[in-house]
TrEMBL record:
<feature type="transmembrane region" description="Helical">
    <location>
        <begin position="652"/>
        <end position="673"/>
    </location>
</feature>
<keyword id="KW-1003">Cell membrane</keyword>
<keyword id="KW-0812">Transmembrane</keyword>
<dbReference type="GO" id="GO:0005886">
    <property type="term" value="C:plasma membrane"/>
</dbReference>
<keyword id="KW-0472">Membrane</keyword>
<keyword id="KW-1015">Disulfide bond</keyword>
<protein>
    <submittedName>
        <fullName>TMM8A factor</fullName>
    </submittedName>
</protein>
<dbReference type="InterPro" id="IPR000742">
    <property type="entry name" value="EGF"/>
</dbReference>
<comment type="similarity">
    <text>Belongs to the TMEM8 family.</text>
</comment>
<feature type="disulfide bond">
    <location>
        <begin position="484"/>
        <end position="493"/>
    </location>
</feature>
<keyword id="KW-0245">EGF-like domain</keyword>
<feature type="transmembrane region" description="Helical">
    <location>
        <begin position="617"/>
        <end position="636"/>
    </location>
</feature>
<dbReference type="Pfam" id="PF12036">
    <property type="entry name" value="DUF3522"/>
</dbReference>
<dbReference type="InterPro" id="IPR021910">
    <property type="entry name" value="NGX6/PGAP6/MYMK"/>
</dbReference>
<feature type="disulfide bond">
    <location>
        <begin position="459"/>
        <end position="469"/>
    </location>
</feature>
<feature type="domain" description="EGF-like">
    <location>
        <begin position="455"/>
        <end position="494"/>
    </location>
</feature>
<feature type="transmembrane region" description="Helical">
    <location>
        <begin position="679"/>
        <end position="698"/>
    </location>
</feature>
């Protein structure tokens, strides 16, 4: 046999601490057919700075779809399927880099996914630029060993083969046809090259993670041994590996035979029925009364064929709506006839390669008036690769190499729902059958009507009122995840364990918005001292900060007067410009110079915020530059007057020192104390401290300006006016 090795690599990604699925870094690989060995090379590394500590990286694996993970231990939505992913841990302690290998023998062909992430996020809000986070990098490479000339086992034809040695197992494959209800594998004539009784082990199927349903068969001696499989995967190649358990030097000769039991479908989905349905629906909406009338008329004609067939397959149309959004529509209408004679089968096509990043939702609704037997139950199974055709014999919905998901409806419970999170790329089947407690004879020819709604959605229920559905991308692959807020958690933001109450949400909104009213004293002081431009800036900041935080709330207490991004930009701009004009006002510059710096600084701040809105230097840069100007101006004033400036000790003790203390306290709270949990009151404290510091730091008005005297300006009585005209003398 000729083996070919192939190597696939993807670029490294920077890992993040986990708070929702978007923090997990996804790697997408495609394993080719006839692969006999798969090896993952996992490389993790960290920075060398003092901020880098030992860290544990969790890596999840899954075949067919992204892994469903739950690092936070939150609850999944009701009726959702939960199967933990296969994961390993990689520890970075003293070593800067860690290399780990993971081997998979006889892996399933198709899409494989790897997701890696750091432990749970601490929840601290870090200001960009104040601290340098440690970079943790992760890269996944894939090596495959592929057999180029794998022998094909033809159904019904005995085929002799030789296992050369225990170190070189024999690999063959057989194609499973469509409508295969069962498969029987038989191994016979097992002898060694030394003419002794042999011992071999046969492995049927491929390994899939997190769960592997590979079937094993051990044959000893020359007697025949066989293995029967129910519902093998349709229209797929099935790998069979035979390995010798004997001595190292002896070869083993075996003879293998594979046979299939094929199920003949009913005539409900024949080509002519499909054409007639399309013609009848030319002027009517699919699923309306005009489309269901022909199917009802054909039911008596198909009764004889239904008794002789083992399943009834109904035509289903796949309707693509958007990215990771599909609706399945039955041509005969949403109502499906279900009997006890044979299962009714619906095909849900999810094999495009771009459907595994959402959630498959199947909803069944029983029409109670259609069931004549009160104790009858409609049993359903949702499975991938092959349908469950023996619902009356087994209730666990298992096929040859996979485990399906059971559903049931009855007159006592007429509705059932199933949510498959990240369904694997494959053909999915919905099997339905009517069951009676005393067997098929009790049901007779009874028939139930079940309304089926099946669709693929990016996020179930659009993540609810306390979540946001985000579309994520890894190269060309798209998948969706829910980002929860207001303390809610879980896959679809349905876990209310740590959720905020409505009262807490209202309190948070009131604190973050009403705390901006502390700018009113600063505005009043600025107006009283004739700093009208500064007062206008403070009013602008108070207004947009109030309505930005009213729009930024995660819960139900939300009010947005304009676009969120616009409110955020105006809030950030007003905050930085307020600091800029306050420090320049303290510098006591000439009016023309002060206003030029006001305008020029505002324009530069607006440009820098557009480039990086959350950068720390967008605030620190203007502050430091304004402080340099203020200190330079104060030194100039002090040198000119030959004494310290400001000269009054009362100005330092009662105004400047309290204002500076409030400003530094506000910066400390903003930079080092804010977390996701205490944000609503720590950020409110920031609002109060900054507004109060502005009221203290504003300098007094110029001595030549008189205070506002409205009583002198708005008078209705006679006044003795002073003549301030200058006397002009003519010189002759």
């Amino acid at each position: 046999s000729l083996y070919v090795s192939e190597y696939f690599s993807q670029s490294a990604q920077k890992l993040s601490f986990y708070s929702w699925y978007g923090n997990a870094k996804l790697f997408h690989f495609h394993v080719p057919e006839d692969t006999v060995l798969l090896r993952w090379l996992l490389q993790a590394s960290r920075g060398k700075g003092p901020e880098c500590t030992s860290m544990e990286i969790t890596v999840h694996f899954r075949h067919g779809a992204p892994p469903v993970i739950n690092p936070l231990g939150t609850r999944f939505p009701a009726n959702a399927t939960i199967r933990p992913s296969y994961n390993i841990s990689i520890t970075l302690s003293t070593a800067v880099q860690n290399t780990t290998f993971v081997n998979v023998t006889s892996p399933a062909a198709g899409d494989w996914f790897i997701a890696a992430h750091l432990p749970e996020a601490a929840g601290r809000i870090e200001v960009k630029g104040f601290s340098t986070p440690c970079p943790y990098m992760f890269q996944a490479d894939m090596f495959v060993l592929r057999l180029t000339d794998m022998p094909v086992l033809e159904p019904g034809v005995p085929m002799p083969h030789t296992v050369v040695s225990p170190a070189k197992p024999l690999h063959v494959k057989v194609f499973v046809p469509k409508y295969a209800a069962g498969m029987r594998f038989q191994l016979s004539s097992c002898v060694t090259s030394e003419r002794r009784a042999c011992t071999v082990r046969v492995l049927l199927g491929s390994i899939t993670l997190p769960q592997s349903f590979q079937r094993s068969l051990t044959c000893t001696g020359s007697i025949n041994c066989s293995l029967a499989l129910e519902s093998p995967p349709w229209e797929k190649w099935l790998q069979i590996m035979v390995e010798s358990l004997g001595t190292a030097n002896a070869s083993v000769s075996v003879e293998m035979l594979a046979s299939f039991t094929v199920c003949r479908p009913g005539s409900a989905s024949s080509f002519f029925n499909f054409i007639s349905l399309n013609q009848s629906q030319a002027g009517a909406r699919p699923g309306a009364a005009g489309g269901s009338a022909p199917a009802a008329g054909e039911a008596p004609r198909n009764a004889s064929g239904q008794r002789s067939s083992c399943l009834q397959s109904l035509p289903v149309v796949r309707e693509d709506l958007d990215v990771v959004s599909v609706r399945y529509r039955l041509l005969n209408g949403p109502s499906v006839p279900v009997s006890s004679l044979s299962p009714t089968l619906l095909l849900l096509n999810l094999n495009t390669g771009m459907d595994s990043g959402g959630s498959l939702v199947v909803n069944l609704l029983l029409n109670k008036t259609s069931v004549s037997l009160a104790n009858a139950t409609v049993v359903a199974c949702v499975s991938a690769a092959s349908p469950v055709l023996s619902l009356n014999a087994t209730r666990n919905c298992s096929t040859a190499f996979s485990q399906g998901y059971p559903l049931s409806v009855s007159t006592s419970s007429a509705e059932a729902m199933l949510i498959v999170l990240y369904p694997q790329t494959d053909d999915w089947f919905l099997s339905l059958q009517l069951l009676c407690p005393k067997g098929q004879g009790e049901c007779g020819t009874a028939e139930a009507k079940v309304t089926v709604f099946a669709y693929l959605t990016p996020c179930f229920n659009d993540c609810g009122p306390y979540g946001q559905c985000s579309l994520l991308r890894r190269h060309g692959y798209l998948y969706a995840g829910c980002s929860c807020k207001a303390g809610w958690g879980g896959w679809s933001c349905t876990d209310d364990t740590k959720a905020q109450t409505v009262g807490a949400q209202n309190l948070a909104t009131l604190l973050l918005t009403l705390s901006n009213l502390m700018f009113l004293p600063a505005i009043a002081v600025a107006v009283h001292r004739y700093y009208l431009v500064e007062a206008s800036v403070y009013t602008y900041t108070m207004f947009f900060s109030t309505f930005y935080h009213a729009c930024d709330q995660p819960g139900v207490a939300v009010m947005c007067i304009m676009d969120y991004d616009t409110l955020q930009y105006c809030d950030f701009l007003g905050s930085v410009v307020s600091i800029w004009v306050t420090i320049l006002c303290m510098a006591r510059l000439k009016k023309i110079l002060k206003y030029v710096l006001f305008i020029l600084g505002t324009l530069l701040i607006a440009m820098s915020l557009q480039l990086d809105r959350r950068g720390v230097w967008n605030m620190m840069g203007p502050c430091l530059f304004a402080l340099v100007i203020m200190v330079t101006a104060w030194v100039h004033h002090g040198a000119k007057r030959r004494h310290c400036y400001p000269s009054s000790w009362k100005r330092w003790v009662f105004y400047l020192l309290p204002g500076i203390t409030l400003a530094f306290t506000a910066i400390s709270v903003y930079a080092f104390m804010e977390t996701n949990e205490n944000y609503y009151y720590t950020h409110s404290i920031w609002h109060v401290l900054v507004a109060c510091s502005v009221a203290f730091l504003l300098p007094p008005r110029d001595k030549h300006k008189k205070p506002w005297a409205w009583s002198q300006k708005l008078t209705c009585r006679y006044q003795i006016c002073q003549n301030d005209r200058e006397e002009l003398y003519a010189v002759t």
